[in-house]
Amino acid sequence: QVQLVESGGGLVQAGGSLRLSCAASRQTFRSYAMGWFRQAPGKEREFVAGISWGGSSTSYADSVKGRFTISRDNAKNTVYLQMNSLKPEDTAVYYCAADQAALRRIPATTPETYGYWGPGTQVTVSS
Q: Which residue, among 71, 89, 86, has the nearest Cα to 21 in the 3D structure?
């Protein structure tokens, strides 16, 4: 069982930046692709960014390309989401997730692929 805990959310003005962190409880974390998803009120959970187990491959939703960057530090069992040029439409609860299968080279974009989820952290962007 992998436990994930997000941090770094908060309230920020449009155009500002935040960095989210996701700490995993087990060293086996380093063998799994990781993803960030978000869910706004009244909307479905959507993919934001993903990173392969080794960190060499990343993927992003079109809505965040060029503004968000996902990275990981396997020595610290932590994955990050750097969010720049934030917009009010980025307001949501952000979730960190770990893949169900080990050693996936291309991070998946569908939530069904991920078997472990954190409780989420709220990001609010004011206009």
A: 71
